[in-house]
Amino acid sequence: MPEQTVFTHNSSLYASRVYGEGILAAVVAVVSVERLVNGGAWSMLWLIPLVVGTYAALRLLLTGSVPRTIELTGDQLVLSDARKSRTYALADLQEFRVREFRASDTIYLRLQPRGGREQKYWIEWKAYSDSDELVAGIRAIDMRLHPDSLKVRAGLTGYTPAEGTRHA
After folding, report:
1. Count of CB atoms within 10 A of residue 107's CB?
2. In angstroms, how far is the first alpha carbon of the chain from the final one?
3. What is the pLDDT of residues 26-60, one digit of tens each?
4. What value does the mean pLDDT of the chain take?
5. Are 164 and 144 in contact, with CB atoms under 8 Å apart?
6. Three-state SS for 75?
7. 88 pairs with which residues across the strands?
8. Cα separation, 160 vs 21, whole angstroms
9. How far apart are CA 49 and CA 28, in angstroms?
């Protein structure tokens, strides 16, 4: 992995996937509340779109779970959105979990620094600049922090043990 690499989300995709979908989800939640209040016999069914719309709006618009830029360095990870930038020192991470959804080209990243609050991120790697290098960098961090993980032992694509390392 290079010393420092910055990956940027495609700006038009970011606007549609984060702001567009977030605003649409908020509208669905507001309409659901209105239908619950003024609805008839079947109005309780509007609880489903209320929950889904509220969750999606919070996830996309408020929590910053879809980073605009990702910066990988040798010893830290920086995730930035429009409102704030979060820096994680790799040595300070209590938890670094990577779950890949290859069918949708998405990575679910769960981070928890020591003494800090758990953060969750959704990274659609095909929407970032140099997406293959981004995935390789995240996998390299995962292998560095979890060298004996099942992903490495099973030899999943992109997870190969370092030279001279032998697993039973």
Report:
1. 20
2. 27
3. 999 999 999 999 887 788 899 999 999 999 999 99
4. 86
5. no
6. coil
7. 77
8. 37
9. 7
Q: What percent of the chain has pLDDT over 90?
A: 46
Assigned token pair, 37: 């209040």
pLDDT at 168 over 70: no
CA distances in angstroms from 134 to 11, 58, 88, 116, 156, listed in the order given:
17, 26, 16, 25, 17
CA distances from 117 to 83, 88, 100, 120 (A): 18, 12, 22, 10
Stated pTM of the model: 0.80
Residue 107 neighbours by CB under 8 Å, 6+ apart: 98, 99, 100, 101, 122, 123, 125, 135, 138
* Tokens (6 digits) for 12: 């038009």
Determine the length of the chain.
168
Nearest by Cα to 50 from 73, 30, 66: 30
Enter the tokens of residue 67: 């980073």
What per-residue confidence (pLDDT) applies to 140? 86
CB 85 within 8 A of CB 79: yes
